[in-house]
């Protein structure tokens, strides 16, 4: 229980710090890169915990699944503002900027899929959660395939 509280406090702190710094202009391109990579790291951690449940590597626990889905849903809108002009680099492929319309559409598709995942996870319906997880993971994979360096 203490670990859960620590994770929640840490996540809330990261959100507050990230949201505050994201609202301000990034002083250097490296700041934008670090910001978006940090958001994606926290999302990947929570997503990975849910993936372990879907794969049968971890037991289903409604509260844990709901918590991790909420973390991903909360963070999903944040990284996109850090892909502005002049922020090229990191693990992002040049297509992020050269085909920005496709990148934006992919980010919006992911955000919708993650919102559906969160709704399913909060409901406690295991099958709905697993189905929504599959759909959300496909949107992540699609973006990684098209826009993330291997």
Provide the gyration radius in Å: 16 Å
Question: Roughly what fraction of the amino acids lie in strands?
Answer: under 5%
Low-confidence stretches: 19-23
The overall pLDDT average reads: 90
What is the chain-wise order of helices and strands? HHHHHH
- Beginning-to-end CA distance, first to last residue: 37 Å
Derived structural class: mainly alpha
Secondary structure: number of strands: 0
Judging from the principal axes of the Cα atoms, what is the shape? elongated
Helix content: over 70%
- Number of helix segments? 6
Major sheet description: none
Question: If you had to describe this structure to a student in words, what would you say it looks like?
Answer:
The chain is an all-alpha fold. The protein is 75% helix and 0% strand. It has 6 helices and no strands. The protein has helices at residues 2-23, 29-54, 62-75, 95-98, 100-123, 126-147. Helix 1 (2-23) packs antiparallel against helix 2, helix 2 (29-54) runs antiparallel to helix 3 (62-75) and helix 3 (62-75) runs antiparallel to helix 5. The longest helix has 26 residues, at 29-54. It is elongated. The model is unreliable at 19-23 (pLDDT under 50).
Keywords:
single chain; 150 residues; mainly alpha; 6 helices; elongated
Short description:
The protein is an all-alpha fold and 150 residues long.
What layout of secondary structure does this protein have?
Elements: H1 2-23, H2 29-54, H3 62-75, H4 95-98, H5 100-123, H6 126-147
Helix pairs in contact: 1-2, 2-3, 3-5, 5-6
């Amino acid at each position: 229980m203490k670990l859960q509280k620590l994770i929640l406090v840490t996540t809330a702190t990261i959100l507050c710090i990230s949201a505050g710094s994201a609202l301000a202009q990034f002083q250097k391109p490296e700041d934008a890169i670090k910001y978006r990579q940090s958001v994606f790291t926290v999302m990947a951690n929570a997503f990975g915990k849910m993936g372990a449940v879907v794969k049968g590597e971890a037991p289903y626990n409604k509260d844990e699944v709901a918590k991790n889905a909420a973390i991903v849903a909360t963070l999903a809108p944040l990284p996109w503002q850090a892909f502005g002009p002049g922020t090229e680099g990191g693990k992002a492929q040049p297509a992020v900027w050269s085909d920005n319309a496709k990148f934006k559409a992919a980010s919006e598709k992911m955000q919708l899929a993650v919102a559906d995942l969160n709704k399913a996870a909060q409901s406690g319906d295991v099958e709905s959660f697993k189905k929504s997880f599959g759909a959300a993971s496909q949107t992540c994979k699609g973006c990684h395939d098209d826009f993330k360096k291997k």
